[in-house]
């Protein structure tokens, strides 16, 4: 059953910044290749910041550079450099020496850009000491961890509210789910998606 066609495709190389419109994207099991490969980090605390706390970030845009395509499984120094455009048209690259100063000026807060790190990198994600999920969530010895992938959105939302009340549980789930906690699209088969592709409901 055909539901429609893909009208637009957007990728957001830097978390909480505007993104780039593309004609084609590559979907991996982990999500869209090149999406959110950089984040804005508080220069003082080292915590990742978002547009919720710094809405000024939403006025900036980021794009991957020609000839520096993102690569699957890249972390740290291997993450492809991106270009950020501030309001007014000024541009800088993520690894420029003056990138922190320009980002901070645009956001009104001391920030720097940090490349994607593995989900287990506790220092990068500033995770608290997690609870032992096996003992916290499995009522019987040896019982497998619960699978949240098919939990209805409304129940998952209520679960997230409970989790937010216990930061150590949040940290444990972040590690267990490799930062994929929420309502997401599950990629069943990797491949390319193009503007104009048909959107079909599989039976």
Fold and architecture overview:
With 203 residues, the chain is α+β, with helices and mostly antiparallel strands. It has a domain at 1-118. The chain is built from five helices and 13 strands.
Record the SSE blueprint.
Blueprint: E1 2-5, E2 9-11, E3 20-22, E4 24-28, E5 31-32, E6 38-42, E7 48-49, E8 61-64, E9 82-85, E10 91-93, H1 99-107, E11 111-115, H2 122-125, H3 133-137, H4 153-164, H5 167-176, E12 191-194, E13 198-200
Antiparallel strand pairs: 1-13, 2-3, 4-5, 4-12, 6-7, 6-11, 8-9, 9-10
What's the gist of this structure?
The chain has 5 helices and 13 strands. It is of the alpha+beta class.
Roughly what is the average pLDDT, rounded to an integer?
A: 83
Number of strands: 13
Q: Mind summarizing the main beta sheet? A: 3 strands, antiparallel
What share of residues are in beta strands? 15-25%
Shape: globular
| Contiguous helical run count | 5
Strand order of the largest sheet: 5-4-12
Distance between the termini: 8 Å
Oligomer: single chain
Low-confidence stretches: none
């Amino acid at each position: 059953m055909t539901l429609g066609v893909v009208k637009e495709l957007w990728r957001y190389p830097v978390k909480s910044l505007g993104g780039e419109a593309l004609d084609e994207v590559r979907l991996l099991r982990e999500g869209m290749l090149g999406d959110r490969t950089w984040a804005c980090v508080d220069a003082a605390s080292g915590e990742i910041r978002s547009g919720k706390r710094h809405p000024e970030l939403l006025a900036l845009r980021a794009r991957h550079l020609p000839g520096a395509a993102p690569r699957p499984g890249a972390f740290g120094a291997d993450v492809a450099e991106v270009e950020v455009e501030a309001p007014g048209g000024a541009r800088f690259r993520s690894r420029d020496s003056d990138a922190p100063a320009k980002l901070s000026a645009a956001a009104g807060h001391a920030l720097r850009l940090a490349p994607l790190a593995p989900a287990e990198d506790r220092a990068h994600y500033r995770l608290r000491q997690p609870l032992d999920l096996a003992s916290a969530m499995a009522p019987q010895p040896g019982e497998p961890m619960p699978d949240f992938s098919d939990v209805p959105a409304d129940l998952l939302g209520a679960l997230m509210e409970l989790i937010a009340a216990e930061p150590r549980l949040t940290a444990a789930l972040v590690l267990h789910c490799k930062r994929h906690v929420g309502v997401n699209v599950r990629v069943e088969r990797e491949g390319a998606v193009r503007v104009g592709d048909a959107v079909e409901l599989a039976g």
